[in-house]
Amino acid sequence: MLRHTYEGQDCSLARSLEVIGERWTLLIIRSALLGTTRFDGFLSHLDIARNVLSSRLNRLVEHGILERVPYQDKPVRHEYRLTPVGRDLTGAVVALMQWGDRNLPQQLGPPRRADHLGCVGTIQVELRCTHCGRAVHDEEVDVRRIR
Question: Which fold has domain 12-140?
Answer without folding.
Answer: Arc Repressor Mutant, subunit A (1.10.10)
